Amino acid sequence: MDALFGFLGSYWWLVFPLMGVAGPISAWWSKNAKERHQRRLEVMRTKAELAQATRHTDPEAIAEADAAGRTQRLARLMDTHDEVSRRWLDYELDAAKLIAFPTMSDGRDPHTAAFLRAKKVADGLRPASAEARVDAETYAEYRDAVHDFEVAFDIAEQEARRVRDTGFTESERQRLTRAQHMLSVAVDQSATAAERQTAYRRIREELDGLIVLSDAAESELRQRVAGELEA
Fold first, then answer.
1. Cα separation of 33 and 151, whole Å?
2. 58-79 average pLDDT score
3. What does pTM read for this prediction?
4. Rounded to whole angstroms, how far apart are CA atoms 231 and 219?
5. Does 24 or 133 have the greater pLDDT score?
């Protein structure tokens, strides 16, 4: 011990260089500790993945996972189906939209006719619910039908917004313009009951032979037009 103290007393100046080395050593030690911790985490993750994979080799687990996935896919598909139907109803229930884009209600238009055919097919293949058990072939048929339905509607809508009323004669376009004007009067809350009744009657006269309003659109228009009007 006396020899150690003697050595330290003689070489006390070595303390300062060693202090300079201590910082890098500490940083190195900290870095290695982090790397060891990271490796442990990776080993744990690998073990968990192996356990998960082993568990999924169970036929019942595979069947359950497949059924859950199929239900989710079918639910998303039905949501798409509903969304396209909702977009179509925006035209069916809104007389203003039908006047502005008349080909959307014209089954003689090839784009609208193609959309209506695609809608009929998709509606016919639609399962009762997302939980319904459907085989792969039935699912694929419904998926393709919904895709065709969506694409056909997009094409019909784009075409309707492009052509607007250009397929009508000049006199017919004037009738559509008057119908639009009458519609704004018919739904104007500041107009009198007599004015609104007259406007409603004029709308039907102007559209007669040009645009066929669906029963739903008629009902919606009556509700918008009048608290005073009788259905």
1. 57
2. 71
3. 0.63
4. 8
5. 133
User: How far apart, in whole angstroms, are the C-alpha atoms of residue 150 and residue 115?
Assistant: 8
Distance CA 15, CA 139 (A): 78
Q: Name residues whose C-beta falls within 8 Å of residue 127's C-beta, 6 or more positions apart in sequence.
A: 74, 78, 134, 138, 142
Rounded CA-CA distance 229/41 in Å is 73
What is the pLDDT confidence band of residue 217, given thresholds at 50, 70 and 90?
Answer: confident
| Confidence at residue 133, expressed as pLDDT on a 0 to 100 scale | 87
Local confidence band at 21 (pLDDT 50, 70, 90 cut-offs): very low
Which token pair is 94? Answer: 């809104």
Give a three-class secondary structure readout of the chain.
CHHHHHHHHHCHHHHHHHHHHHHHHHHHHHHHHHHHHHHHHHHHHHHHHHHHHHHCCCHHHHHHHHHHHHHHHHHHHHHHHHHHHHHHHHHHCCHHHHHHCHHHHCCCCHHHHHHHHHHHHHHHHCCCCCCCCCCHHHHHHHHHHHHHHHHHHHHHHHHHHHHCCCCCCHHHHHHHHHHHHHHHHHCCCCCCHHHHHHHHHHHHHHHCCCCCCCHHHHHHHHHHHCCCCCC
Token pair, residue 131, equals 């939980």
Chain-centroid distance, C-alpha 212: 30
Query: Is pLDDT at 62 greater than 50 in this prediction?
Result: no
